[in-house]
Amino acid sequence: MEMVIAVNPEPASKLGYLLRVPLDGGLVFRTSGTWPRTKALYCHPVPIDEWPDDPEVVERVAVRSCARRGAAIDLVLDRGRENRSQIVYTTARGRDVVFWQSPRTRKQARPNVRTPTARAAGIAELPIVVDSHERYAYRFADQQVGLTKRALPCGDYGVFLEDRLVASVERKSVPDLVPSLTNGTLRYALAELAALPRAAIVVEDRYSAIFALERVRPATVADGLAELQVRWPNVPIVFCDNRALAEQWTYRYLAAAYVWAEAENTAIARIAAPRPVDAPAAESGDIAESASGAGEGAPPAPSTAEVRAWARAQGLPVPDRGRLRPDIWQAWSSAHPE
Q1: Which of 42, 119, 219, 241 suits 159 as a labelling partner, its CA being 20 to 30 A distant?
Q2: What is the spatial distance between Cα 330 and Cα 91, in angstroms, rounded to a whole number?
Q3: Residue 235 covered by a domain
Q4: pLDDT for 245-303, tens place per residue?
C-alpha cells in the first residue's frame, strides 16, 4: 500500500496537488500541500477517475496502516518523521468539508488545555459592557461576569468606572484583521483605543497564521502589525490560539484593568479631572497648584486642540496629531498671561 501525491493537472485550480490514499480501492482528494505541517489542509474529494493516467508524482510513501474510524481516516506512513496524519470529514457553515491534519496541527488548532474558571482578580462579578454592534459576542459562560450590551465609543468589550470607560478590548479574527490592516481602519481603531487608560486588541488565532495567507503577502501583514505596535505601544496586539483562549484572555485583562482603575490613585485622578497630556512638566505643576485652592476661579487649562488651532492661526507649524512641542505651549502662555 502506498500514499501517492501528484501535481494537479488543472493549472487553474487553487488546490495544486492530488492525494491518493489506499482505502476502498483508492480515495482521491485535491489539496493545497504535500503534508499538514503548519496548518490543517483543506481537501476536496474527487472521483477516482480524476487521477491522471500518467501522474507527475511528487511523493510516494509506503503505508503501514490506513483505516477508517468513524468520520476520520487514520493514516500511518512507513517513515520515521511526519508519519501520522488523519483525514477528517466534518461540516463547516452548513457544508460538508474534509481536512487533512497531523498531530501537530491538531494540537495547535485545539490546544490541550482547560481554561480556568476561578475569579479573575478576586472580583465576584465583573461588569463587562459588550458593544451593541458586536456579532457573535463572547458570553463568558464559565466566568463570574455581569454582561450589559450597549454602544461603546471604541472596542468590543469594556469596563466602566464612575461612568468612564477605563479599559476596552477589540476582538479580531485573522480574516477580519488582515482587511482592516490593509485598508487602514485598524490604524484608526488603535488611535481611538490609545486614548483610553488601558486597551488591547486580541486575535483569535496564532501569530503563525499570518504567514499562511494566500491572498496577501505575509510580510506586508507582519510589517504592518509591527509598525502599529511601534506607533501605539500602549495598545498591545495579543495573539491567542483560538476563540476560547481569546475570550479567557479578554476576561482576565478587563478584570485586571478594573482593579487597577479602582485602586490606583493616579488612575482615579486621571478619571476625575483629566488634563492635557501634552503640557510640559512645569506647566502641569502650575495647574496642580491652582487646583489646590490658590487659584480658585482661574480659567481651565486649554486643551491640546485649542492650542493647536491657536498656533495655526498664528502661523506656527504644528503636527496634525500627537504632542505639541514645549515652545508651542510657551508661546501660548506668553500670549495669554492671564
Answers
A1: 241
A2: 66
A3: yes
A4: 999 999 999 999 998 888 764 544 544 544 554 545 444 444 344 334 444 445 567 77
Distances (CA, A) of 162 to 148, 169, 247, 268: 16, 19, 25, 10
Nearest to residue 195, comparing CAs of 230, 166, 227, 229?
Answer: 166
Place of cell 485573522: 174
Count of residues in the chain: 338
Amino acid occupying residue 150: R
Retrieve residue 124's grid coordinates: 465576584
Residue 168 lies in a domain: yes
Distance CA 192, CA 40 (A): 36
**What stretches of 151-197 adopt beta strand conformation (E)?**
157-161, 164-172
* pLDDT digit string, tens, across residues 31-86: 999 999 888 899 999 999 999 999 999 999 999 999 988 788 999 999 988 899 99
CATH number reported for the structural domain that contains residue 177 in this entry: 3.40.50.10130
- DSSP, res 315: T
313, 320 Cβ separation under 8 angstroms: no
Are 199 and 254 members of one domain? yes
Is residue 24 domain-shared with residue 91, that is, in the same domain?
Answer: yes
Residue 60's contacts (CB-CB under 8 Å, 6 or more residues apart) are 2, 3, 4, 5
